[in-house]
Amino acid sequence: MPSPDPYAVVEEAAKQTYIRALKLVPPDVKAALRRAADTETSETGRDTLGIILQNIDIAEDNDMLVCQDTGTVVFWVQTGHDCALNLADVEAAVGRGTERATIEHPLRPNAVHPVTRANTMTNTGRHLPAMHYEFPDEAERARLGLAADGLRLTCLPKGSGSENMSFLKMFVPADGVAAVKRFVLECIVDAGPKPCPPTIVGVGLGGTADLCAALAKRALLRPLGTRNDDPVIAALEVELEAAANELGIGPMGLGGRNTILGLAIEHAHTHITQNPVAVNLQCWAARRSSATMGADGAVEYGF
Amino acid sequence: MTRSNSDERHIAFPITDLDALRELRAGQKLRLDGTVIGIRDATQIAIFDRGEKPRMDLRGAALIHTAPNVRKLGPGRYEKVCIGTTTSARMDRFTRGLMEEYGVRAIIGKGGLLAGSLPVLRELGGVYLAITGGAAALETTQIEAIEEVEFEELMPECLWKFRVKDFGPLIVAMDAHGRSLYEEVTAGARETLAGIVERF
Q1: Where residue A86 sits, what CATH number does that domain have?
Q2: Interface pTM, i.e. ipTM
Q3: Nearest Cα to A91, choosing from A165, A151, A166?
Q4: Residue B45's closest chain A neighbor by CA?
Q5: Where are the domains of chain B?
Q6: What is the pTM of this model?
Q7: Interface test with A, best of B41, B82, B92 (most A CBs within 10 A)
């Protein structure tokens, strides 16, 4: 039997990961929502979390979208050292898969020109889907279940309610770590009810302005409860996560103890004069789905 | 208005008495029957900034901030795929026009209108009703049909008439008496934050 065209496999996997991300809430997020429902003290908050959990079940049982916002489509491509695929062709295949999902399902088209607001009707366009590329080392590949000759696609269709709540601040060394902590919490308060709390908080720390913002988004790929491998950063994650849940914003911003489901920080070294911080919030309907492919064309779907 | 059980009231829209919602109080739970009208950023920009008047009668209407996923069946005919609610604050500046010029009395959304809309609600007897954002699968099952579509050129941000039954639960989050649950929660969060920052 001839082996399948690998770019056709990537195209189909891109289509499926986009649709799966819109229909299935990742198991770590579901578990966190159940814990939130068990611990919520506000009656409105408990009712709201009950509706959220009921909604997830309705979507799963009836093959429906969890949320109507089909998002701005963002993909990560992770390849092993021996992956033979041409990344330019992979990128084109991901674009075709996104278009096919939009037209064939059908999904709401969201991609518009920033000035004319003309809608492409395909959820693709100039620089869309937003693409990120990573080349994980052997240890990371083992964690991901990615073979040396394999490729992993992760789709994060980002809802606008939470993406509109994105923040960047260029701190300087004299501001200290206290300014970083304060800023992250201020962002959560400023966002208030708008990003559909309980949210997941992605924080980028260090790097340059562009890298810092990308790291904040990258933090949202980490399953809830996982910690940064740098113990200094991990301690900051724990401290900020607990502090955010003291704020009382609660489910859908109507009050309660569950304001966030988790907080992850991705960091980079930065310049001696600066300390950039970016915050990218993710709504409770955390759309995230992945496909891992081997050189034989076999595809395994996950989150 | 009828009372179905101790804590959820049913209201049929459109309402005929434009003062009927003044009796609602922040924190009350509701379910809606009848019709709700879907509207979005681009629709309101067309109506208010470009002066394109809608044909649909919005008197006594409940609007919902949405742009749905739909499947086209034929000219002007669509069936639902997924219908849910978007963030309201972006469209705050249209509240007065909708209520004063067009007679809208209820806006359904998530995340709230801004504090500046409270005087409009008070003056005209309007309410803001909070739905659980992101819970679109549930919402879709409560929408019986798409009855009418206008501004189709703005797809998906058209003016949509939905027939609904037991739509909700919705919470009166901003009432005609100057109360906003969002303002109260945010004020509390700012006070708590000031205390937390002391520890850093």
Answers
A1: 3.30.1330
A2: 0.93
A3: A151
A4: A117
A5: 2-199
A6: 0.95
A7: B82
